[in-house]
Amino acid sequence: MKASVVVIFFGVFLTCTYAAKEATKKIKKAKLYIPQIDCDAKAGKIINPEFIAKCPPGCQDVKYRVYGTDIYASFSSVCGAAIHSGIIDNTGGKILVQKVAGHAGYRGSFSNGVRSLSLPRWRESFLVSEGKPRKGVTYPSTLEYSSSKSTAVKPEPKKPEQDLKALKSAGTSNTSEKALEQGDTGRKGDQTSPVPTPTIQLATTTPTPTSTTTDPFTTTPKPTTTPATTRTTTAAAAAKSRPGLQHRVRDIGQVQAAQGRGLNTAFRGTSTSASNRNILRPNTGIQRQEPVAAFRRPAGSPAHLAMETDLWKPGLSLFDTGFASKEDLNPKPLEATSQGNPSCKVDLSFLMDGSWSIGKRRFQLQKQFLGNVAQALGIGSTGPLMGIVQYGDDPSTEFNLKTYANPKDLRNAIEKIPQKGGLSNVGKALSFVNKNFFSDANGNRGGAPNVVVVMVDGWPTDRVEEASRLARESGINIFFVTIEAAAENEKQNVIEPNFVDKAVCRTNGFYSISVPSWFGLHKIVQPLVKRVCDTDRLVCSKTCLNSADIGFVIDGSSSVGTGNFRTVLQFVANISKEFEISDTDTRIGAVQYTYEQRLEFSFDKYSTKQDVLSAIKRISYWSGGTSTGAAISYTSEQLFTKSKPNKRKIMILITDGRSYDDVRVPAMAAHQNGVIAYSIGVAWAAQDELEAIATDPDKEHSFFVDEFDNLYQFVNPLIQNICTEFNSQPRN
């Protein structure tokens, strides 16, 4: 009897406990309200660092501008970016938005019916993903806007909560094991031989969203070493296991080495053509046979890295994961710092070809060449500085600009570099250098031109055009040294025809050198040094932000008023602060006009950004009539006749009314003298005059707004237009 009572009591207790837990769960599951945003809502105007929102239908429209690919500048349309990335379509839907730090460059592309634009840099970025709440994160039901407006709350039934999928990181994938060194191996193949595949570890951490100023493109993934797997299969057997694999054997030594290691090797070209460089090289007449020697990869080599992929973290880039870096290689200089050659002050990065195609002997020739270049340059603190990035499947920094400050130590360090192996992914290497190498932390000096010299055996195994364009837009001067370029019967294997012209800073021959044989590489040491030190011809150091003389022409007439005039000055300051201002970079001048004209300050008056911004703030309101035509003529004479020859002359005119005099003739004269004119009209400004003042096409160079308080809307489009126009200049 007692036992029965106990059992009944215990059963009732469990039932009550279960019911209580279920009731608690129901209480905890609060309904999530999703705020709705407009198609033109920009991430930069929303204060919340992470939020879920609902986009309306119809946002796939060219008027909703998007800047970037995968990661977007914060003044992009949020819903437009979501359509571009494929998260939603034109019918709208829920999205998750996460703010991240600014980026040095945004790549435009066409995706899902939306054309995104490129941008050199911006202060803040954002990511978009599926509109599912992340576990442990509380999302706002009302969004905070910088303009103090808030969204209306529209209740929406909550679907079952799911964890946010880990953001995919470009460059992080299952990469194949690199083949070991084989003396002088065959040329690069279009495919790799994945033997074996390293393990990829996926982490599913859930970070707390926070705002950060960390550059998201400097994060280096933590490597996890995986021991190499030894195989005893012969090279011949390995080749048979891959039908259709094309071989181009350079010499008998590579076959012996392959048999000794029994690893698959990717080759490029065919073995059937009589002109293929099989055992004897026609251009040298010598047999290239290498001794069979064991080659041991260093621990932690990129071939044995297993990369970790996390959910988004502040500071983590979608583009950089998968790159192995060696920034910890910072040995103390063995000798005193050299002053170097002061007539050649450049910051120089060599992209060293570590692919298997060049073989052991030619890799040694490449190292000798780089050592000779370091000696000829005269490396030193007040002269050129040199770092090296080696690339194969992935790039890695061997040492940066500040690691060595004298030629002897630099040459010794070069001699100790082991070969990476893999393919010749030049595009990936250029992207890596653009995002990571030329930073203050790596010794970039700012005032010295940035130069990249790409060494490539034959041809790259990936595309270089887009990565090169972004690097050039960042101010990097790209040189190519191509050794043993593709023969006529090999050109069918080249992934990107004319890749050199698509990559280099200019296509006039100055930035490219072709060498017929690795054994003739020593002959170009002095010609290359002379070119990289010719700073007057390093034109890609000039970007849209550091190579202009910008003259503001400001309407000070009575109709403007004191308050609105201060708003105009703030607009001028907001534009100016986006540029790199100095004596050698962008310079700013200003003219105010009524019936008369007054030079507020000339191009050579102020050489720092702070001084320019202070001078703009001090401009006093004049008041009077509106003679815009006379003001254009005055500005052309007083400002732009004193512009430097290598500067782009840009005039930005702001007015609120129709001019008392003719604007067409003065504007035409300015255009003929090379002045690029932008006209910005407010309130009563005449549209026909704005178009006459603006450079053709006038639709891209003239703007109109009904109120002074809305002038801020034109800051970003104006800068974007200036940069787009700059980047579209011919490269011949």
**Unreliable sequence segments:** 148-335
Total strand segments: 23
| Largest sheet: number of strands, sense, barrel closure | 6 strands, mixed
What integer is the average pLDDT?
75
Number of helices: 17
State the separation between the terminal residues, measured CA to CA.
102 Å
The proportion of residues in beta strands is: 15-25%
Calculate Rg over CA atoms: 31 Å
Helix content: 10-25%
Strand order, largest beta sheet: 14-13-12-15-16-17
**How would you classify the helix and strand content by structural class?**
alpha/beta
Sum up the overall morphology in one term: globular
Subunit structure: Binds dermatan sulfate and chondroitin sulfate.
Biased composition (Low complexity): 198-239
Subcellular location: Secreted, Extracellular space, Extracellular matrix
Domain LCCL: 55-126
Describe this structure in words.
With about 725 residues, the chain is of the alpha/beta class. The protein is about 25% helix and about 15% strand. The protein is built from 17 helices and 23 strands. It has helices spanning about 1-30, 80-85, 235-240, 250-260, 360-375, 405-415, 425-435, 465-475, 500-505, 525-530, 560-575, 610-620, 630-640, 665-670, 685-695, 700, 715-725; strands at about 35, 50-55, 70, 70-75, 95-105, 110, 115, 120-130, 155, 200, 310, 345-355, 385-390, 395-400, 450-455, 475-485, 510-515, 550-555, 585-595, 595-600, 650-655, 675-680, 700-705. The protein has a 6-stranded mixed β-sheet, with helices on both faces. Helix 5 packs antiparallel against helix 6 (about 405-415), helix 7 packs parallel to helix 8 and helix 13 packs parallel to helix 14 (about 665-670). It starts with a helix and ends in a 5-residue tail after the last helix.
